[in-house]
Amino acid sequence: MSRFVDRVTLHVSAGKGGNGCSSVHREKFKPLGGPDGGNGGRGGDVVLVVDPSVHTLLDFHFHSHAKAGNGTQGAGSNRDGAVGEDLILGVPDGTMVLDSDGRILADLVGEGTRFDAAAGGRGGLGNAALASRARKAPGFALLGEDGVERDLVLELKSVADVGLVGFPSAGKSSLVSVLSAAKPKIADYPFTTLVPNLGVVSSGDTTFTVADVPGLIPGASQGKGLGLDFLRHLERCAVLAHVVDCATLDPGRDPVSDVDALEAELAAYTPALSSDAGLGELADRPRIVVLNKVDVPEAQELADMVREDFEARGWPVFAISAVSREGLRPLTFALAELVAQYRIDHPKAVARRQVIRPVATDKAGFSVISDPDEPGGFIVRGERPERWVMQTAFDNDEAVGYLADRLARLGVEAELVKQGAQPGASVTIGDVSFEWEPQTPAGVDVTMTGRGTDSRIDQVERIGAPERKHARRVRRGLESDEQ
């Protein structure tokens, strides 16, 4: 038996970009044919797309991790790596996407609506793309970037034209079953309906959908009963129909008090609405009162008594019986008329172009702050420095020298000098910490040496950390000078 799931947490992981290739063209009579390493392929994206054949988030409940394909590494002869395969995930119409902090990222309504849940990492440049006047045949390539990983909350809000609201066992599921071809579970005990049921109704030239929401009770907007989990399914309904049980045997209930209690819960839930597809607050939606079970004589008498009270509020009132089907035809025509009027007042929105708004950043593109955990140390923050560090293979001296040039051109080294950084100071960028060497002339023309090496790194004459540690232990008498 299928299950209805309308809220899940999904962990999405975009694909990693492929590494660039470091290669030199080799051909007979051309010993130095120049660099020909290709770029790495971009990682695949994770994309959510509204699919009309998907009606629940059940698949994500059992498979909560989604990962796109990785890009492949570049190759020689200027061959770029293959692009990672995008992962397309179908979601039901009416799915809302939130981040882990509860901020709304997307409201997916309408077939084919897309949302890029996670962007794939960029592929690393090969040495052919890194060649310049200073580096005619680079002996290194850039590493591919990791794809975006994050947790998303998917929340389904049923897209229905008419929402049936009522106490448990008021006859909402029975009404859906006789108005449409839907066959929900029906029983004579409270909370029989545990999931929203949708049915399609045709009346003349108008076709609309009806959804019954599991029974609401006083306190539902604060989490009592089942109402809190399913109140959101009313947010997209253009018309609300109060289904009232006129044959209830509960002495403490009557149709007027039932409707007043439901209205109080709808009003209490309104502040929780952050996006309702432009329908406005629940309190402003058109209302219809359906007095059900009038096939019982006492229920018919009660319906006649309370009709004037509801009509005084300006609400159309219909006395029906879902069992004998009495009064269903006028009710169907009235619902179709309200839905048709809503569609006239709210024409379907025309698809708009996607608007891309660049994120504002500071002019420098980075910031330097003191490291609270390392005396005399500094932390460099910024999208570009952190991305450059991730792209660097630190086992290649030439790649490290290229990173130093990029940071110097950006102004990181000048900012460190301005803030009083001393030689050997610990500098952290992203997840990498290193000792700052201001004597290394970053940004100047590179003297040609062997591939994968950088002569500037070997020119540093300052005593390194191992030598300083040994000298300190000698002064303390813990080691001999000969060691």
UniProtKB/TrEMBL annotation:
GO terms for molecular function: hydrolase activity. Mg(2+) binds at residues 173, 193. Its main location: cytoplasm. It is found in: Cytoplasm. InterPro entries: G_OBG, GTP-bd, GTP-bd_Obg/CgtA, GTP-bd_prot_GTP1/OBG_C_sf, GTP1-OBG_CS, GTP1_OBG_dom, GTP1_OBG_dom_sf, OBG_GTPase. GTP binds at residues 166-173, 191-195, 212-215, 292-295, 321-323. Pfam families: DUF1967, GTP1_OBG, MMR_HSR1. Its cofactor is Mg(2+). Residues 16-40, 440-483 are annotated as: Disordered. Residues 160-340 form the OBG-type G domain. Its EC number is 3.6.5.-. It is an enzyme of class 3 (hydrolase). Residues 453-468 have a biased composition (Basic and acidic residues). The keyword Metal-binding applies. Residues 358-438 form the OCT domain. Keywords: Cytoplasm, GTP-binding, Hydrolase, Magnesium, Metal-binding, Nucleotide-binding. Monomer. An essential GTPase which binds GTP, GDP and possibly (p)ppGpp with moderate affinity, with high nucleotide exchange rates and a fairly low GTP hydrolysis rate. Plays a role in control of the cell cycle, stress response, ribosome biogenesis and in those bacteria that undergo differentiation, in morphogenesis control. HAMAP family: GTPase_Obg (MF_01454). Belongs to the TRAFAC class OBG-HflX-like GTPase superfamily. OBG GTPase family. This is GTPase Obg. It comes from Rhodococcoides corynebacterioides. The gene is obg.
